[in-house]
Amino acid sequence: MSNQFTAGAVVYARNTAKVSAFYAEIAGLHITHAEQDHVVLESAAFQLVVVAVPARIAATIQVASPPQPREDTAIKLVLPIASIASARVMAPSLGGQLNPPEREWQFQGSSVCDGHDPEGNVVQFREVAP
């Protein structure tokens, strides 16, 4: 794990292993540190820390199967990825989902698509145009 601070975010999860695996595979983040209560994922410019929700709170959280997007939050992660099409195919095997191609849009030279992780946290993926 680097001591150099990078931009980052924290995601709270009931299942840190499953949520961490989703972000590692879909966004190409590398797991640089893992303990029972948190996992650190990094790229050269970003750090995502997946933190275990305390047991007393986790017991009150229901995650549907398949997970339903939780859109009633003020913040949405935005992550660069190599291919939205590839991520769309890969996401279900990791417990998440990307919206269908007809819901993609263009923004600042990127193709953009929302999706959600295995616990329903909405995330935006951006594929930079060549």
From TrEMBL:
Its recorded name reads Glyoxalase/bleomycin resistance/dioxygenase family protein
InterPro entries this protein is in? Glyas_Bleomycin-R_OHBP_Dase (IPR029068)
The organism's place on the tree of life at top rank: Bacteria
